[in-house]
């Protein structure tokens, strides 16, 4: 039984969403298919699809939001890798039993019509992992 279906997207923290959209549109040869603000995370997201793969650009709407803090500490760059799962609650339970530290013990509504939850990078070799489940 697969617990993780595929890489859902790679999240990239950026300072300026418009400049980053222009850069990635030139780089990838496609325009973003969706731009969305997630108030609870103080972030503007922009999604690009290339083949089966997606890139999510994240720009903070607040210096003290998660992305604002990340950029202040580490600069722009890869922020997280997201994995698609069929049952996010079961997957969170499984990962916690395996010894992973969860940032979110219960999923919350995220961008792109997804339920999301994060696994702490302390337990994943420094990589912030996001779990995503499509909201039906």
Automatic annotation (TrEMBL):
Residues 78-105 form a coiled coil. The keyword Transferase does not apply. CDD domains: MMCE (cd07249). SUPFAM superfamilies: Glyoxalase/Bleomycin resistance protein/Dihydroxybiphenyl dioxygenase. Pfam families: Glyoxalase_4. Belongs to the methylmalonyl-CoA epimerase family. This is Methylmalonyl-CoA epimerase. It comes from Aquimarina litoralis.
